[in-house]
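Posting this for the archive.
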Amino acid sequence: MLPPPSQPMPAARAFIDAEHAHPNGHLLLRAWRGGWWQWQRSHWHEIEERAVREAAYRFTEDAVYLTGKGFAPWAPTRNKVADLLDAAKAVTYCAATSTSPSGPRT
């Protein structure tokens, strides 16, 4: 169960926590200098926007959210996923002045 698509920030936090965070709280995905960066064993590696978009579609594909009338399918669309990823960039933001993505979420 996810927050509704009308609430992209909580949905993005759920996406990042479930798919792109280490159990110790460190983020394994960062939005840095206009791209997406993923932690891979010992270093940060830039990944394609399409890879993150695919992960978002996969994450929301079978998700549901609670409405006043019960559960409704999250039913990802281009706009819902775009809103989710825009919010995910805020959740995973790393300042461009950093020499590389780093550290746990603050």
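The chain is about 35% helix and 25% strand. The beta strands are 29-32, 35-40, 43-47, 64-67, 70-73, 93-94.
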